[in-house]
Amino acid sequence: MMTMSLDFLALPLLTASALVLLSLVAGLFSARLGLSFLLVFLVAGMLLGEDGPGGVLFEDFRLAFWVGNVALAVILLDGGLRTQYATFRTGLRPALLLATVGVVVSAALTGLGAWWLLGWDWRLALLLGAIVGSTDAAAVFSLLQTSGVRLNERVASTLEIESGLNDPMAVFLTLALIGLATAAETPAPAGARAMLLALAQQFGWGLLLGTGLGWVLADGLRWLTRVTRPGGGVRALLLLSAGLAVFALTTWIGGSGFLAVYVFGLVLGNRSRGSIAPALQAMDGYAWMAQAGMFLLLGLLVTPTEALRTLLPALGVAAVLMAVARPVAVWLCLAPLRFPPREIVFIAWVGLRGAVPIVLAVFPLMAGVEGAKTFFNIAFVVVLASLLLQGATLPWAARRTGVALPDRDDPAAVRRVFGDFEVPADTPMAALCQFYGWPTVEDERLTVGEWFRRTCQRPPVEGDQLRWGPAELSVRRVRAGSIERVGIRIEDTDEDGNGTTSTPAR
């Protein structure tokens, strides 16, 4: 009797499932050590590859490109579904600037550094800058979830919205510079017009289809769940298939699928919050599976022995990006919006690079750009350096710059940040000044909440601080954009002029 061997099914499945399982367990422990969860999957893919113990030769860049794009679409959809309109109050304007002007500035300065370090043609150097110029949604979303750090609303919303919106600009710059590097001479005015038209088309179709289809699908989903009452798993599949359809349709007609799927998730999640809430847990699982699969596959593509040949200049490019290009871009975008210096420093440092630069580095390979494999190797080193250095130091940087909020269940930490007592925001500021002997305010009709908002000249968030005479006032509670409670810490001076902090009893 003949029996059919199923080794072709069992062995690959056993290898893949065991690799994912071990990577997940290792990732949980790495997160406790402050390392990026995704770094483990990247390393696991490398170990499975041709230079590792696995010895698997994998060079299907087209498949990796396909998987990377689908995975990013799933991640952006999940991020959009979880982003509430309220966060746009403080994060939209700075995030838009960072996702457009910031990406261009970062790409240009990184390209300048690559031109100097590598001695490349300026077009190829700028192409490398565009590839690594944007932050990565997968890396930012996962680290903010697993770091255990509670950031103030302005910083958290700016980082999340930026990472969800900046992919279209990075893709546009990459494609435009590939065209510049490979095409024959084109008259400058015609080339500039074509680039501007392509940019408008990317953003225009992305916003239009993402918003319109999100609006329509929100009504359809509410009706469908009311009539059929599907479970959370089925709802998640509905969301996933609809989001991927929006991504594919927008990409097919020449728009930015990344922008469309993020905006689609945003509109759908806010217009139909009750209908999608049961599906969010399953969507979280899909997003993590997408991230794990994408990083495993990208790690499998990397040949470490090849990457070592360009290690030093690649580390130089990473240093230029992290220490020069990103900080300059963030400062140019956020300083006019009156962001506190400590928040500018933190946002500049947490410009995490992840799968997006590696996926974008596949573009030159598919387009046949000369020396395209070098782009891939350098992008990989830049991502690895970012995850190891910036990702691992996120909690430390948040505490060091003062953008981390205390745990609400830790009274001692709350007192250290906000002081031992608080007052309602409708308390007259003039009365506080008179009682404590602070400098007088110009308008005696102002409440302490109104004074705070007018003085800081930006939408207030929990944790904002202002100094007035010997006192440090901080926003302790905000609801719907309005300050409700203000914490006060008073610093007295002793006879020798030394500052001593005292906080009166309530």
Automatic annotation (TrEMBL):
Residues 414-492 form the Transporter-associated domain. One of its GO terms (biological process) is proton transmembrane transport. It is a multi-pass membrane protein. The keyword Zinc does not apply. SUPFAM superfamilies: FAD-binding/transporter-associated domain-like. Pfam families: CorC_HlyC, Na_H_Exchanger. Keywords: Antiport, Cell membrane, Ion transport, Membrane, Transmembrane, Transmembrane helix, Transport. GO terms for cellular component: plasma membrane. The keyword Cytoplasm does not apply. The chain crosses the membrane at residues 63-83, 95-118, 124-144, 165-183, 203-224, 236-265, 285-303, 310-332, 344-363, 375-398. One of its GO terms (molecular function) is flavin adenine dinucleotide binding. InterPro entries: Cation/H_exchanger_TM (IPR006153), FAD-bd_PCMH-like_sf (IPR036318), FAD-bd_PCMH_sub2 (IPR016169), Na+/solute_symporter_sf (IPR038770), Transptr-assoc_dom (IPR005170). It is found in: Cell membrane. Its main location: membrane. This is K(+)/H(+) antiporter NhaP2. The lineage of its organism: Bacteria, Pseudomonadati, Pseudomonadota, Betaproteobacteria, Burkholderiales. The gene is nhaP2.
